[in-house]
Amino acid sequence: QVQLVESGGGLVQPGGSLRLSCAASGSISSISRMGWYRQAPGKQRDLVATISSGGSTIYTDSVKGRFTISRDNANPTVYLQMNNLKPEDTAVYYCYHRNQYSAGYSVDYWGQGTQVTVSS
To answer: What phi and psi values does residue 65 have, to the nearest 5 degrees?
Structure first.
C-alpha cells in the first residue's frame, strides 16, 4: 500500500499562484510515476501533469507554460507549481502515484483531493 498526503490548495485570484505538494509513504517501487489529476464539478477526472521517477514529464495542453511538476525521490514527494491561474483551473486536485513493476504490471493510488478555487 501507498499513502498519499496532499497539501497546498486554497483560494487564489486570477493570475495568482499556488503550490501543491503530495508526500508518498509505504511500499513505493523503484520505478514509479507521480502526478496530479483534477476534477471540476460535473466533469470527469482529467490528467494535469505527471512525472516519472526518471524525471520525464507529461502535461495537459491547457497548463503548459503555466504549471511545473517536480519530484523529490529521496523523500517521495511530488510538487505542482501553478502560476497564472485561471478560473477554469478551479477543481479538486488529486495526487496520483503509480507503482510500476516488470511485465507491464502497475498499481495506482490516489490522494483524498485538495480544492483549488480561482476567483476574484
So the answer is: 85, -10
Calculate the CA 76 to chain-centre distance: 13
Cell numbers for 25: 509513504
pLDDT digit string, tens, across residues 71-116: 998 889 999 999 999 999 999 999 999 998 888 899 999 999 999 9
Q: What DSSP string describes the chain?
A: -EEEEEE--EEE-TT--EEEEEEEEES--SEEEEEEEEE-TTS--EEEEEEETT--EEE-GGGTTTEEEEEETTTTEEEEEE-S--GGG-EEEEEEEEEE-GGG-EEEEE---EEEEE--
Give the chain's end-to-end CA distance (angstroms, integer): 40
